[in-house]
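Schema walkthrough. Field components (list of strings):
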Amino acid sequence: MSTTSPVETTGAAGATYLDQRLGSNKFLARNLGKVFPDHWSFMLGEIALYSFIVVLLTGTYLTLFFKPSMVELVYDGSYVPLKGIQMSEAYSSTLDISFDVRGGLLIRQMHHWSALIFVASMTVHMFRVFFTGAFRKPRELNWILGVVLVTMGLGAGFTGYSLPDDLLSGTGLQIIRGIVQSIPVIGTWGAFLLFGGEFPGTDIISRLYPIHILLIPGLILALVTFHLLMVFTQKHTQFPGPGRTNDNVVGYPLLPVYIAKAGGFFFIVFGVIALIGGLVSINPIWIFGPYTPDQVSAGSQPDWYIGWLDGALRLMPNLESHIAGFTLSWNVLIPSVIIPGLLFTLLGAYPFIEQLVTGDKREHHLLDRPRNAPTRTALGVTAITFYLLLFIGGGNDIIAAAFNLSYNSIIWFLRISLLIIPPLMFVLTRRICLGLQRRDNAKLLHGYEAGRILRLPHGEFIEAHEPLSVKQLAVITSKNDIAPLPMPQKTDIDGVKNKRYQIENLRSKVSHFFYGENIPLPSAAEIAAGQAHVAHEAAIEAPLHAYEDADQIENFHGGVLHHPGMAPTNAAQQDER
Amino acid sequence: MTDLTPHGNTPAKLGYSPVADVPHVLRVSDTDPAAAKRAERQIASMFLLSMFLVVVFIVAFCTIDKDTNVYIPVFGEVGFLTIVLGFTSGVSILLIGTGAIQWAKKLMPDVEVVQMRHEMTSPQDATAEAAANYERGKDESGFARYKIIRRTLIGAMALFPVPLIFLLRDLWSSPASGTLTPDEILSHTLWKKGERIVVDETYQPIRPEDLPIGGLVSAVPANLMEVQEVDGNLNARGKAAIILVRMEPQEIVAQQGDGWDYQGIVAYSKICTHVGCPIALYEHRTHHLLCPCHQSTFDLANAGAVIFGPAARNMPQLPIGVDSEGYLVAMDDFNQPIGPSFWERG
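Field assembly_structure (string):
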């Protein structure tokens, strides 16, 4: 077709070479034109992936200089304020990376920023998947993988945060020691095994190091690969729109558009992280000083993703039980072990819970609009509210200082809020969703408000309604009406007792909780009639822009009023047009 | 149904959308060759600028001294080299991305195409074949028949990782003496009767008159320095750190033991009973001690009682007195383990 360049000839030869050994052309034939749907929110997962790649690259560089050792030495680098101070080799080598390796600080800051962005984008990506129902069959397993990945991201972040052995990270480890020690029966031994004895010991940095640079990243890499393979095999979900069904994928082909966009986006994420890493300081460990277990700086704050756990620790009332000579520290156990454990378990189990109460075993590739799953959306908002309140709790000292408030009252406010605000948000969100559903139905039956005010011949003012566009129609009518599961019968027709009555009854009750309130879509006939009616009305009320002297018509805020030369009636005007 | 993929150059440039009857809006670069040419130039300049910035990066790396600081408003005093390296590498990488996306958006087809999905469930015959293969394997191996082989195999598989757990046992073993359990180690500190209380960092012994009313001193036992030297770690410091505060003797409402103060000077552990942060925020009018980590608040005038926050236990008090030379000393070790709770604590 076109001329072939030498590069292409070589490329083709290379492809043939590989194909003869791997059969790779079959794969290419199938997939070079593979279609990926487009939506801004699909970028969130991409940001997570790309920032993870940046974390790996920068992290590898840092291992070339960092020494994971707690051997004490006297600092003799170029950061003057700490010259002659005793510190661990880990801290001193981190100072060297920051001050004596050219570009070292850039890479260190890029590593930290990309780690923060990695966890943040995973979290927001998870929200997107949750609120659009992208976790439904056949993607439940990928959801679980995602939850595991988020957990690992937190682990990777925390272990990395602890490595420089500065005053702030050491305080974080001290809190971890307290948490491990609170675990019943095995806690004390667990802490001793972890730290190689008492806190802080001399082992923890060199033990966290392989976990941080090998174990967790290796696992994340493996799981991310599976995560992506599943997306590839199952094909990406898509938002509803014209021509988009549960059986097709509408979007851009892998080659060239998707590769250009996704590949380009990698460089954008990478570039932005490099810019932030160069321009915005993060974790200035030289200010905190080396770690010692008897000092702490006021306003000690963990990285943002640990903030909610720290907040939970702060808000928990001081319960402790002493039973038969043993101590149970509920004040540590509940906020730092039980709550996160429960939260992540619920998160992982959610797709299955929802499947149980819908009884829906179909495959879903068309995404839900959050309003069309009011209970799910409300549950998500409730969880996020809970999370945010804990997060605010984690920064209560900062808030107290910034707004001159008493931290006691902030804590009491948050303790009470934790019980009141999440349920309130649940009710509110569900109401808003149902309200939006009603509005959608009104649009289907009566068109949308065009923002055009008309004066009828007899003087009445009305607002014109216009029929929906093909796109709006497709989006709104994508709604899936789900009927709650019926209440089970105690006995069947023959009077035989239903042994599963209790379970089915519960399931039906939860199902009613989820789907009892629903504003069903009007029937196709009703929609067609509604739209036809609106189209007819709209034509009659059509604006006057076609007139030659339209520019003389006074434009009002919100619409156009009649002008002197208009036809006497709308009908006459319609004929004219 | 057959898959629909874009074919050659026919639909792309004509504004045809195979998706539905939504009119496809042509871009300026589709209709105006001059605009297309302009886009081409823009994209190429981005890639060109990206290359140029790499050159700037190299020059900066080789010429800028790593210790040079510059003042930049908002950012403050910052390392010049880090900023220049970050800026040049960041923008050069960014430009590759913006160029590629600009290319995709302006010059590559913007027509959406359709592909059909296929149900994930395998076709019946494949499932049947898999089942048949499984049955054959089961028969040939005799997995179902040889009950005893099966059960012993499962047992062996369950047990073989167990040694791993044992291998982790020596992540910690009791030092020299070899008999102390973790809870015993946690229960004792360096403090003992007659041990001098010295100022942290300077190791100066303290006379009662050195400490004014309302004053606070972070202190450690005099023998800490040598112990720390011998142990090669900060463990002893992490347990023995105390704070000394002085108040009017009549202000003391309660203590953990009779006469554990010395003329209004009381000594409390510095390690929070919540999760172990060192505490040093003391308000001398109220005698409140506040933990900066989780805001547990203790009243040092009232036996170190918790008055707010997540800590469940009083701050342990150290009984103090003076020795023959008039220096402050401990009268005993703490009568309870300091720091966060643990299971065996009782």
